[in-house]
From TrEMBL:
Acts on the D-isomers of alanine, leucine, aspartate, glutamate, aminobutyrate, norvaline and asparagine. The enzyme transfers an amino group from a substrate D-amino acid to the pyridoxal phosphate cofactor to form pyridoxamine and an alpha-keto acid in the first half-reaction. NCBIfam families: D_amino_aminoT. Its cofactor is pyridoxal 5'-phosphate. It catalyses: D-alanine + 2-oxoglutarate = D-glutamate + pyruvate. CDD domains: D-AAT_like (cd01558). Keywords: Aminotransferase, Pyridoxal phosphate, Transferase. This is D-alanine aminotransferase. It holds the Pfam family Aminotran_4. The gene is dat. Belongs to the class-IV pyridoxal-phosphate-dependent aminotransferase family. GO terms for biological process: amino acid biosynthetic process; carboxylic acid biosynthetic process; D-amino acid metabolic process.
Length: 281
C-alpha cells in the first residue's frame, strides 16, 4: 500500500498536505534521500541517513532529529505501508513560512512517501541501456542531495527524447556523473570512476560497488576521464539505489565495445546481490 507522511502524521498519498507557502515547494529549499526496500527491509539505511544529515548540515537546516529518529520513522512507515519491495523518499525542507529568501524561524518540514515498485525491467539488465552525454549545467555543490533538480530533469528529458535511459554529464571536458546515477568505465580489467568532489554525489551504491570490487579483487581507480575515453572503454555502467548496477552499451549512438553488457559489470552486479543478501536477514 502506498503511504505518505508529513510532520508527524501518516497520510494517503493523494491527500493535500503541503501549504502553498512551503519552502520545498516554492524554492526547492530542502534535501532528500531515496532508499530501496527489499523484503520489507531498507538497504544501507545507515549510510543513506548519514548522507541526509550531511546534506542538512550543508544547507544549514536546523534539524533536531537524530539518525536514530529518522531510522525509527522510516521503519514505522515501512511497517504501516506493509512495504516489501519498494522505495522510500524522505524530504526535509526549511518549513512553512511567508515567501522570503532569508531563513525563516520556523520548524523544518519532514515528509516521506513509501511506494511499492516493480523491479527494473529485466530487458535493461540483460541488454544494457543507451545514454547520451550532456553538459553538466548544475551548480557547484552537487555533493548535497538537494531538492533542486532542474538541470538533472532537463538533461534526463533530453535523454528520454533521444530514446535513451540516462544522460551522462560532462563538466570541463570530463565525466562527472549521470543525472541520477554515478558512472563507471572498465578498461583493461580495471574499474574507473570519477573521484568524489563538490561536483558529484557520493553515491551509496558507489560505496557498495567499491566494496564489491575489493571482494572480487577487481582493481578500482578513482580518476577523471573524458567522453572520448568513455566511448573507447571496454565496458560502461551506471549505479544508483534504484537501478543498482546497470550496463550502458551505447552512448551518443556509439556502441561500447561489442554492445553487450560486460563481464566485470555482470560480476559487480552479482556481488552487489551478495552484499544485499548478507545485509538483509
Ligand atoms: C546526481 C546523482 N548521482 C548519483 C546518484 C546515485 O546515488 P545512490 O547510489 O546513493 O542512489 C544519484 C541518485 O539518485 C543522483 O541523483
Amino acid at each position: 500500500m502506498d503511504l505518505g507522511y508529513i510532520n508527524g502524521k501518516f497520510v494517503q498519498l493523494d491527500e493535500r498536505v503541503i501549504p502553498i507557502e512551503e519552502r520545498g515547494h516554492q524554492f526547492g529549499d530542502g534535501v532528500y534521500e531515496v532508499i530501496q526496500c527489499y523484503n520489507g527491509q531498507p538497504f544501507m539505511l545507515e549510510e543513506h541517513l548519514q548522507r541526509l544529515l550531511e546534506s542538512c548540515e550543508a544547507i544549514k537546516l536546523p534539524i533536531s532529529e537524530t539518525l536514530e529518529d529518522f531510522r525509527t520513522l522510516i521503519l514505522t512507515g515501512i511497517e504501516k505501508a506493509e512495504l516489501q519491495y519498494g522505495k522510500v523518499y524522505l524530504q526535509v525542507t526549511r518549513g512553512i513560512a511567508v515567501r522570503n529568501h532569508p531563513f525563516p524561524d520556523v520548524p523544518v518540514s519532514i515528509s516521506m512517501t513509501l511506494k511499492d515498485t516493480e523491479p527494473l525491467a529485466e530487458g535493461y539488465r540483460v541488454n544494457g541501456v543507451h545514454a547520451i552525454t550532456h553538459d553538466d549545467e548544475r551548480w557547484a555543490k552537487c555533493y548535497i542531495k538537494s531538492l533542486n533538480l532542474l538541470p538533472n530533469i532537463l538533461a534526463k528529458q533530453e535523454a528520454q527524447e533521444a530514446g535513451c535511459f540516462e544522460a551522462i554529464l560532462v563538466r570541463n571536458g570530463f565525466i562527472s556523473e549521470g543525472t541520477s546515477s554515478n558512472i563507471y568505465m572498465v578498461k583493461d580489467g580495471a574499474v574507473i570512476t570519477t573521484p568524489l568532489s563538490n561536483h558529484i554525489l557520493a553515491g551509496i551504491t558507489r560505496m557498495a560497488v567499491i566494496q564489491a570490487a575489493e571482494e572480487l579483487n577487481i582493481p578500482f581507480v578513482e580518476r577523471y576521464f573524458s567522453p572520448k575515453e568513455l566511448l573507447e572503454a571496454d565496458e560502461v555502467f551506471m549505479t544508483s539505489t534504484l537501478v543498482e548496477v546497470l550496463p550502458i552499451v551505447k552512448i551518443d549512438g556509439t556502441v561500447i565495445d561489442k554492445g553487450v553488457p560486460g563481464e566485470i559489470t555482470k560480476k559487480l552486479y552479482m556481488q552487489y546481490q551478495e552484499l544485499k543478501k548478507k545485509a538483509l536477514v
